[in-house]
Specification:
InterPro entries: DNA_repair_put (IPR023875), DUF4130 (IPR025404), UDG_Type-4/5 (IPR051536), Ura-DNA_glyco_family4 (IPR005273), Uracil-DNA_glycosylase-like (IPR005122), Uracil-DNA_glycosylase-like_sf (IPR036895). The protein is of the alpha/beta class and 482 residues long. The chain has helices at 11-24, 48-51, 62-71, 79-90, 103-125, 152-162, 200-211, 219-225, 240-257, 264-274, 286-294, 328-333, 340-351, 384-401, 411-418, 446-451, 455-481, and strands at residues 3-6, 33-36, 129-130, 140-144, 167-171, 175-180, 183-188, 319-323, 360-363, 370-373, 376-379, 405-409, 431-433, 439-443. Helix 3 (62-71) packs across helix 5 and helix 14 packs across helix 15. The chain binds uracil. Residues 323-327, 330, 336-337, 339, 341-342, 363, 447 line the site of uracil.
Length: 482
């Protein structure tokens, strides 16, 4: 019976290669055993490269590839075998990935969810402590974390992007991630190292105590967001017991000190929520909306992006500009249209008489969707599900800003705003409406111009784009005057 010993790192690719090889050799699931890392009993184990020598061209649903890409990091020793059994069945069972009643698939889905959750917790709860002198060219940090699953390897690139300008190490019992001079590598796991507290710890504690609202204390929700097992490695968590214990008295004191008249803003919110067509709770201002967008998990895009990129501009702007999604630079800066497409838009908008500083500039999708390629992050178009999931935020921005006109740039913005996926080239220069009746002027996306390889064509298209923006501005002026 073949036994496959997968390596400690690169386990996902090794599993895929081995599984393909086994399928090509028609080895049924009950005739193969799997492990991660060789043990003494594995002396006769085969390395994945050996198993993978016979390659088959095997077509599997994308959904399975993504499921397997998560489940391999689960701690269940049966995970590789479960995935292989599913792959084996996929050869003959069409539609298996859609079968909600299939127990084996349901188990894999719940494992996938557990891995997603574990990765998310890691991005939220790793706390770095500074370990080097502050005047080094690259500051040095270290963190200790205890993930539930083997999630350090797939999550480390997130930290590499976010903390690209410092050197750091994240140690876990299974694996250590090391980021030095921009290179990410892995070493064996280790027992908890003795990392001395640093000055930021006190700062964290103060910040945490200050953002805590005793009147909103929900111990159940808090424990589910920040389970107790993480507390021991979170410097701020030492304040939690005292904060819970004193919450009642502090909330009462807040109530006693509260003004007796409701704040003016409350009346405005009540009025707006009572308006026809408003059927759900909404953020009451743009700052709150930004905070809510940043906590969004409505679709998986938040998992790899650095942060959400909310719209920006005056609260009373009468022009709203909507693009597709943040790009690489926007994702890092947390601001829309600051990269090459944004600079191109700024220039042509200025020439067309549009003042960007008076417009509210935003995107149909708030998180950057990309595929990693070496050190680069390659833009990917958001799909209809992601556009729909993010429509809530765009709609909230429209309702708060109440623009007279929306300038929609590119197919994604047009789909989100009008619900129609018809090609943008045949609709550009025309005005349609959102389902709520806000006029939408349609044009192409500036990055379309940047991608055109032929300079003459690019000049022509740039001219057309400038003409579109001029028409949009003229239309806005008509609306202002009416
Ligand atoms: N492209 C967009 O659609 N939006 C941005 O914010 C940047 C590039």
């Amino acid at each position: 019976m073949p036994h496959v010993a997968l390596p400690h790192t690169g386990t996902d690719k090794a599993w895929r290669d081995a599984a393909r090889g086994l399928i090509a050799r028609r080895v049924p699931p009950d005739e193969v055993t799997w492990s991660r890392g060789a043990t003494e009993e594995d002396l006769f184990a085969q390395a994945p490269e050996q198993v993978a020598q016979t390659r088959a061209t095997l077509k599997v649903p994308r959904d399975f590839v993504s499921l397997a890409g998560s489940v391999v990091w689960h701690r269940d020793p049966e995970r590789f075998a479960r995935l292989y059994a599913m792959l084996w069945r996929l050869r003959s069972e069409k539609g298996l990935m859609e079968d909600r009643g299939d127990a084996a698939l349901a188990k894999l889905r719940s494992m996938e969810k557990a891995v997603h959750r574990d990765r998310h917790k890691m991005t939220a709860f790793v706390r770095f402590r500074e370990i080097g002198a502050r005047d080094l060219p690259r500051r040095r940090f270290a963190a200790w974390f205890e993930p539930t699953h083997f999630t350090l390897e797939p999550t480390a690139p997130f930290f590499a992007r976010r903390f690209a300008d410092m050197d750091w190490m994240i140690a876990t019992p299974d694996l250590t991630a090391i980021f030095e001079n921009g290179e990410l590598s892995f070493a064996e796991g280790q027992p908890k190292p003795d990392i001395p507290e640093d000055a930021t710890e006190e700062l964290w504690g103060t910040y945490f105590r200050n953002i805590f609202n005793p009147a909103r204390l929900k111990v159940g929700a808090m424990m589910s967001e920040m389970p107790k097992k993480y507390w021991k490695n979170l410097p701020e968590a030492r304040h939690i017991p005292e904060m819970i214990a004193s919450a009642g008295a502090r909330a009462e004191a807040m109530q006693a000190a509260a003004p007796t008249l409701p704040p003016l803003r409350a009346a405005k919110i009540t009025e707006r929520l009572a308006a026809p067509g408003v059927v759900r709770a909404m953020a009451d201002d743009l700052d709150q909306l930004r905070a809510e967008e940043n906590a969004c998990t409505r679709c998986p895009l938040y998992e790899n992006a650095t942060q959400a990129v909310p719209g920006e501009g005056p609260r009373d702007a009468d022009l709203m500009v909507v693009g597709e999604q943040p790009g690489d630079q926007e994702d890092l800066a947390g601001r829309p249209f600051v990269g090459p497409a944004g600079q191109m838009f700024d220039r042509i908008a200025r020439e067309a008489g549009i003042d960007r500083s008076r417009a509210f500039v935003t995107n149909a999708v708030k998180h950057f969707k990309f595929a990693p390629k070496g050190k680069r992050r390659i833009h990917q178009n958001p799909n209809t599900g992601e556009i729909k999931a993010c429509r809530f935020w765009l709609q909230s921005e429209i309702e708060l800003v109440r623009p007279k006109l929306i300038l929609s740039m590119g197919g994604t913005a047009a789909e989100s705003l009008t619900g129609s996926r018809k090609g943008i080239l045949s609709r550009r220069g025309t005005v349609e409406e959102t389902p709520e009746g806000v006029p939408v002027f349609l044009t192409v996306h500036p990055s379309y111009l940047l991608r055109l390889p032929d300079p003459a064509l690019r000049d022509d298209e740039t001219e057309k784009f400038r003409a579109d923006l001029k028409s949009a501005q003229a239309h806005l002026e008509e609306l202002r005057a009416s």
